[in-house]
């Protein structure tokens, strides 16, 4: 029974045409007949208004209204041209009989044969043993009989169809009947045999295919593959072009180990908004066990639902929806295809509205999460109200700011309640093109109304008020320099940032949504070392930093940017979160960033963080990238961070990884691509990819082999093979790998 179901699904996938077609990119394709089509006419004349213009070397007029033309005969009417060695034309009936090197040309099609009959009155003609070419999709073929009805439709009997250039029959469709609708740009064929390299590879009683690359209803690229999680896996998406602003994709997915999953996606676009709804449903998971692992969801329904919506109105209001649901914790691990999917632990559920003005911004939202896996449940915000204001360049050059929030936190097990936060600020930017100085003073006031504190750990009516004072300053120096025969401008930009925040005891305040930031270059100039409003870090510190840039004087392009900085602490930090240690050193780690563009093809990004007292590196990230105009890509990056949970770093676990990816054009038509992603600290290869692609003017194929783990802590490896074959202008089948390669190889672009 399973084999029958699988066979029927596979036939459904392969017998369908596709709803879209790709044009060749980066290929030199000469079809040999591009200049044979007549120009597309912009005039609209009725049939009676269109005169018949005939040219020939010899003309013979008969008494019954028949004319015989011979020698280079051209009959032109209504943007159609019939050429032949000899033609007979009856001006009463409008019938034309032509033979000898006959060709019929218009803006969409060229047909050639030895004889033809044409009705000028009906704008309809027939030809025997003909060859044809179409403008759309560069298609060509032969037919025993062709019936051409104006420029709208063409019917062919015992015909062939291909988009390959002359002299190449890499693939060919042979059918008893073919109907080409040039207005809707859709072709249909019956009793079809598809040949590749002259060998029959597929038969179907019916197929439809596109004649251009505009979207239309029809079956999309089927996906056929195999994996350890699903077994033999077949997806057959059907695209429904409902309206210019509405479409849907229905995707039956048959997995030999798990059963039949139904999926769908609906997209809509209106003047004031857009959105997307996605859902999948597997009635009963048939997989009892995977090796030694028992499937906890055996014979259970597996589901997914997702809705994303955005609306932007003329009155500056907006509305957003982001709602996500899965039936179980293992859904993405079992049915997803990558680390980014299987590593999800929280699914967002957010509904919000807001206003964006010149001075005031307002947001109102209700937000929660679905928790996946053995992780701590997040607080819900039911609701959260945000009001922010900014008034620059007021009297005496002052800037005024306001940051305010009201939020109701809800949790099933922990303390919850309300939090009100108000932070007005005033600043006075001063400076010229050579320097800037900005003093700033803010007052932060936070008030809580807590409930469900079962351990009596916190003050139910806790309040906190404190000032935040800062002074930001910098200088700008520049000089001209010459290197490698080019003129550059080098800048030197020292910057000093002083921050003072007095200490306030905050141990009686819960942690609703606050965490310690990872120490990096942005942290050097932040007003708070915490993300969130439950902690305001005490500070008496001075940041000193230096930035230098090298700018091409002619183009203005920044070729190099180098920044280095450090914080000097005048007093010990005392405000902490649970599980963190207060800073006791007099200085922070040194932070350095470098961004370099070497020519038009090479770029380098790097960031380093090290402890100058211990001469040890706490974090580093280096990435080198190469990309040329011919499609060559090479990326290599190394990431490292030390296992050091100090507040300087905000790091809980060590990490050391190397990532190498490439795309190598072997020739105009062949490409190789690969990736090696390895966790050095755990001696685990997270992902290996190797693939080969061939792309010609009429067909393409891509083979990708992938070996990966779903999670860095997962010892079980997964293997997958993606094979996709595309017959350009007809369709494709196999398992698509575009999104996988775009995610894995930086700079990869699907063609």
UniProtKB/TrEMBL annotation:
Compartments it resides in: Cell outer membrane
Ranges where the LptD C-terminal domain occurs: 302-670
GO-annotated cellular components: cell outer membrane; transporter complex
Top-level taxon: Bacteria
Main location: membrane
Gene Ontology annotations of biological process type: Gram-negative-bacterium-type cell outer membrane assembly; lipopolysaccharide transport
Domain Organic solvent tolerance-like N-terminal: 54-184
Annotated keywords: Cell outer membrane, Membrane, Signal
Pfam families: LptD, LptD_N
Leader sequence segment: 1-21
Residues that span the membrane, as ranges: none
Subunit structure: Component of the lipopolysaccharide transport and assembly complex. Interacts with LptE and LptA.
Function: Together with LptE, is involved in the assembly of lipopolysaccharide (LPS) at the surface of the outer membrane.
Family to which the UniProt record says this protein belongs: Belongs to the LptD family.
Protein name per its UniProtKB record: LPS-assembly protein LptD
Protein's organism: Methylophaga sulfidovorans
UniProt lineage: Bacteria, Pseudomonadati, Pseudomonadota, Gammaproteobacteria, Thiotrichales
Gene encoding the protein: lptD
């Amino acid at each position: 029974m399973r084999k029958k179901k699988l066979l029927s699904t596979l036939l459904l996938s392969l017998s369908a045409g596709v709803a879209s077609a790709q044009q060749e990119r980066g290929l030199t394709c000469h079809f040999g007949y591009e200049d044979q089509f007549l120009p597309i006419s912009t005039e609209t004349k009725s049939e009676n208004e269109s005169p018949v213009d005939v040219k020939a070397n010899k003309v013979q007029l008969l008494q019954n209204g028949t004319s015989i033309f011979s020698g280079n005969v051209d009959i032109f009417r209504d943007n159609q041209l019939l050429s032949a060695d000899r033609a007979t034309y009856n001006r009463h009936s409008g019938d034309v009989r032509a033979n000898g090197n006959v060709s019929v040309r218009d803006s969409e099609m060229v047909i050639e044969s030895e004889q033809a009959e044409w009705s000028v009155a009906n704008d309809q003609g027939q030809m025997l043993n003909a060859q044809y070419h179409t403008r759309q999709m560069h298609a060509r073929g032969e037919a025993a009989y062709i019936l051409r009805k104006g420029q709208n439709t063409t019917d062919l009997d015992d015909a062939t169809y291909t988009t390959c250039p002359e002299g190449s029959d890499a693939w060919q469709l042979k059918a008893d009947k073919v109907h080409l609708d040039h207005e809707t740009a859709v072709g249909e064929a019956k009793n079809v045999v598809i040949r590749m390299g002259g060998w029959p590879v597929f038969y179907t009683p019916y197929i439809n295919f596109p004649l251009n690359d505009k979207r239309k209803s029809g079956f999309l690229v089927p996906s056929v593959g195999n994996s350890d999680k699903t077994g033999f896996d077949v997806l057959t998406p059907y695209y429904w072009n409902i309206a210019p602003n509405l479409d849907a994709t229905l995707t039956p997915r048959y997995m030999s180990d798990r059963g039949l999953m139904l999926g769908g996606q609906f997209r809509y676009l209106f003047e004031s908004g857009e959105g997307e709804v996605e859902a999948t449903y597997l009635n009963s998971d048939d997989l009892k066990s995977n090796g030694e692992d028992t499937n906890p969801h055996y014979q259970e329904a597996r589901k997914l639902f997702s809705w994303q919506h955005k609306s932007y109105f003329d009155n500056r209001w907006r509305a957003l929806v982001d709602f996500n649901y899965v039936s179980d914790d293992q859904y993405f691990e079992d049915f997803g295809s990558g680390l980014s999917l299987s590593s999800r632990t929280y699914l967002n559920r957010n509904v919000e509205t807001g206003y964006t003005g010149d001075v005031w911004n307002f947001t109102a939202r209700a937000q929660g999460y679905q928790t996946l896996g053995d992780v701590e449940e997040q607080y819900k915000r039911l609701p959260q109200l945000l009001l922010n204001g900014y008034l620059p360049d007021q009297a005496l050059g002052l800037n005024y700011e306001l940051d305010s929030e009201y939020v109701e936190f809800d949790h099933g097990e922990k303390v919850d309640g309300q939090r009100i936060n108000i932070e007005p600020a005033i600043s006075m930017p001063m400076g010229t093109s050579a320097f800037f100085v900005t003093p700033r003073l803010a007052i932060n006031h936070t008030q809580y109304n807590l409930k469900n504190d079962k351990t009596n750990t916190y003050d139910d009516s806790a309040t906190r008020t404190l000032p935040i004072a800062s002074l930001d300053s910098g200088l700008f120096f520049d000089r001209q320099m010459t290197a490698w025969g080019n003129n550059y401008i080098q800048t030197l930009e020292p910057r000093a940032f002083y921050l003072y925040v007095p200490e306030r005891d905050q141990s009686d305040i819960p942690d609703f949504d606050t965490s310690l930031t990872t120490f990096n270059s942005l942290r050097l100039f932040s007003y708070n070392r915490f993300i969130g409003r439950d902690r305001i870090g005490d500070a008496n510190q001075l940041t000193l930093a230096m930035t230098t840039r090298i700018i091409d004087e002619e183009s203005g392009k920044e070729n190099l940017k180098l920044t280095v900085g450090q914080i000097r602490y005048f007093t010990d930090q005392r405000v902490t979160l649970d599980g963190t240690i207060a800073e006791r050193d007099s200085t922070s780690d040194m932070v350095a960033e470098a961004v370099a563009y070497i020519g038009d093809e090479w770029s380098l990004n790097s960031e380093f963080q090290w402890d100058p007292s211990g001469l040890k590196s706490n974090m580093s990230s280096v990435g080198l990238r190469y990309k040329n105009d011919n499609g060559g890509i090479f990326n290599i990056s190394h990431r490292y961070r030390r296992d050091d949970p100090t507040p300087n770093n905000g790091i809980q676990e060590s990490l050391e990884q190397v990532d190498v990816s490439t795309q190598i054009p072997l020739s105009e038509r062949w490409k190789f691509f690969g990736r090696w992603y390895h966790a050095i600290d755990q001696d685990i290869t997270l992902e290996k990819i190797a693939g080969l692609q061939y792309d010609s003017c009429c067909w393409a194929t891509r083979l990708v082999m992938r070996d990966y783990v779903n999670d860095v802590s997962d010892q079980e490896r997964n293997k997958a093979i993606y094979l996709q074959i595309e017959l350009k202008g007809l369709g494709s089948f196999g398992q698509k790998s575009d999104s996988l390669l775009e995610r894995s190889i930086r700079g990869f672009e699907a063609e």
